[in-house]
Amino acid sequence: MTDWVDVCGRNALADGENVVVEVDGTDVAVFRIEGCYYAIEDVCTHDGAEIASGELDGDQIICPRHGARFCVKTGAVLSAPAYEDIHSFPVRLEAERVQVRDDRWD
Known about the structure:
mainly beta; 4-stranded antiparallel sheet; 0% helix; 3-stranded antiparallel sheet
C-alpha cells in the first residue's frame, strides 16, 4: 500500500478545475466538481494521451485528442473511441489538505 500524497489545499481549486500530481510514478488528475474531489489516472485508454486538459462537461471529461468521454467520479468510459475505463484513485481531506493515493497494489 502506498502513502497518501498531498495534492493541494481544500479550497485551492475552484469547481471545474483540476491539477495533475505524480503518485508513485503515475500522473493523476484531481478534479473538483460541486465541492467534491475526484482523482483519475491522467491517461486516455484509447491511445495513452493525457486527458486532464480536455473539456469538462459536468462530471465527464472529454479527451482532447479524439473525443472519448469518461466519468471523472468513477473513471468509467462513456463513449468511443475508448472502450476501457480509467483507473480512479481514492481521495481524502486531511487537515484541510486534499490527498490521493495509489490503491492499485493493495
